Amino acid sequence: MGEAKRRQATGKRSPVSERKHRRTLLIGLAAVVGVLVLVALLWWVTQPPGATSDDLPVATSNRPFPSSYDSVGVSIGAVDAPIVVREFADYQCPACARFAPASEKLRATYVKEGKVRLVFFDLPLRQHRNAMPAALAARCAADQKAFWPMQDKLYESQSDWEGLSDPVPAFARYADELGLDSRRLSRCIETDLHRDVINQSVGVSQKIKVASTPTVYVNNIRLTRPGWAQMQAVIERELSGQR
């Protein structure tokens, strides 16, 4: 008797069919449980640690970060801010692009409130052929008071220019979109106007043994997981210690 006729006659599945049905239900249930566990894990991982959490990094040295190095970086925020965040980054680095929203949020909150000064150091890596032109583009935009808008644009559009044989026309287009003088920016890039200061920034990274990007310090505390959650928690801990 076929399965359909058996079910019609008895209202029950055959033992073989019942086992298959139970196996399907168990597999489905296991899949649902797996998804729920994954969602819970992702939620837990992305929660900001408490300001007193033992998981937060601490300073490995009592010596403060040499503030004299800041002159070769690009700064924003109050000069007397109690916290200084220093970022070493490469515009062609994918991890740096992922960190960029945290930097934007930092500027919109703690920097704007006068609690943090942010200093950006260029660290274009040799394996990224367009990292130096991008660093030049941001520094050249700074001549037109648009360093941070250009930085945001470079990260947002990273996938568009990173593989170009000549990224300068793309950078000029971004300048136009930002309301800048694109011809001036292009000339600035092509003449390597700011290459010396970028090389000095690279020199700072070598002195303090920074070789990967992004590397982020909150005062003299090096973050182990650069991102908004850990950065915010360390900032809050440091601020609470100064109150």
Structure summary:
This protein is of the alpha+beta class. Helix content is 54%, strand content 9%. The protein has helices spanning 3-10, 15-46, 94-111, 131-142, 147-156, 158-161, 168-177, 182-190, 195-207, 228-242; strands spanning 74-76, 83-89, 116-122, 215-218, 221-222.
In helices, the fraction of residues equals 40-55%
Radius of gyration, in Å, reads 26 Å
- The shape is globular
| Count of all domains | 2
Fill in the CATH topology of the largest domain. Glutaredoxin
CATH architecture of the largest domain: 3-Layer(aba) Sandwich
Number of helices, where a helix is a run of at least 4 consecutive DSSP H or I residues: 10
Q: What characterizes the major β-sheet?
A: 5 strands, mixed
Poorly predicted runs:
39-49
Strand order of the largest sheet: 1-3-2-4-5
Structural class given helices, strands, pairing? alpha+beta
**End-to-end distance, in Å?**
83 Å
Overall CATH class of the largest domain = Alpha Beta
- Name the CATH homologous superfamily of the largest domain: Glutaredoxin
